[in-house]
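Why does this matter for the project? Reviewers at the last site visit asked to see concrete outputs rather than summary tables. In response, this paragraph embeds two records directly. Each consists of the residue sequence and, immediately after it, the corresponding structure tokens. Nothing has been edited or filtered.
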Amino acid sequence: MDVDFMKNLPIFLPLSEDETTTLLRICKQHVLRPGEVLVEQAATTRSLYILERGEVAVVYEDPLTGRHIELAILGEGAVIGEMALIDSAPRSASIIARTPTVVQELPEKQFHRLMAENDPAPYSLIRGINLVLCERLRRVNGNIAQVMRSPRSFLKQHGITDADELERRSRAFRESITIEG
């Protein structure tokens, strides 16, 4: 992976070429076979990954049903684990290689070492992460508005058709997004 590749990714746009080079130097390459797990849901790992080649599935295991829900397919240039690099929450989904895949890992320890040294690179990356997360939040807000208009339709689209289950999940969804205070 080179600096030009990284500089074209939205999360790295705020970084200078020197800052990008600094982060690239601490990256570790991993090669995955199809079906191999990169990140396990609920794991407490903290690295960020950049998908250099291949394709991965983002898979969420529903704790209520145990059902695996494929949330997204990500390809070249995807950035995985940016939230984990910043917070201490467990991973929200598993990442599983669908094809032969090459990723670059930006390890948490080296990232935080750069921060402790007052290197500007990690701070610029955090700005990039914030910008990307803000954009995602705006999109999610739009999706939530669509779901709120018709939660039953949304649940039916996702294979939940039992009337009692539809009602229970609709109520749980409305409660989960209610902001108190």
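We now turn to the second protein, recorded in exactly the same manner.
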Amino acid sequence: MIPVGKLAYFRGRLTNRIHAMVLEQYDHLSKAGKINKTLLAKRIGREPAQITRWIGAPGNWTIETISDLLLAMGCEPSITVKPLDSENVKHTHVELIASGSTAETAKVFQMWPEANDAKGLPMLKVIAGADRRISCG
């Protein structure tokens, strides 16, 4: 059985990757003057305050939330799945890999299952940089 701490770690890791991907695209389009929270909200029938909450943290995002936000920005994610090898399960290197037209640096963390915090969750350590991309049409 997969330990609860490992399940929590991988859930949080995926949530944070998706949030970073969406936020990066929003920042890119916003800086280019192509989108703002009001326009994004109008495109998906929400209030700007809701967009602010979603962009601030991924706490209660659903797949529909992710789809709506990316569609409103004229984007869609490129998703790949890869197996974890035995070494990655022991010392997991978080690598964010997707294809697309924009690239920014993301932090890569290393999980050391033998070093847990007070709640029994794996400790994380920043070890390198990686590419993160989204494609826009």
